[in-house]
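G., the chain you wanted modeled:
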Amino acid sequence: MKRLVVILMLLTSPLWAVQPDEVLDDPVLEERARELSKELRCLVCRNESIDESNADLARDLRLLVRERLVAGDSDEEAMAFIVDRYGEYVLLKPTTSGANWFLWLAGPVMLLIAAGVGWGYLRARARVPAGQENAALSEAEKERLRQILDE
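Predicted structure as tokens:
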């Protein structure tokens, strides 16, 4: 029974996708590579970092990060290399510069516009006096409406 509990506990623990053949011999470089891998998005899994993903492309990106670090790149240079190659979408936390400002501000601006339209609609609706909704119908239109409703 105890073995079953231990096995279940091991199965529920977080598993990392980094395979033993990817791990660098230098622990400092490996730690840097793991930190960089946590900041890069798996292009297959979308909202997983390449450190957590088992996809082949994530493995290729992990190897690329390690390759750049072994070549002597700083963390910033390695990230810039990958972003230049795959685009800014590869970052789990995109930057707030350039054209991204439009994307960062679009959500709140649309919310404010929707709130303004809703407020304007409610104000206009409140101005119509009670019982005036059908006042615009002529007597002929009211009679025709009664006939349609009676059918």
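Residues 96-128 form one domain.

Shout if anything looks off.
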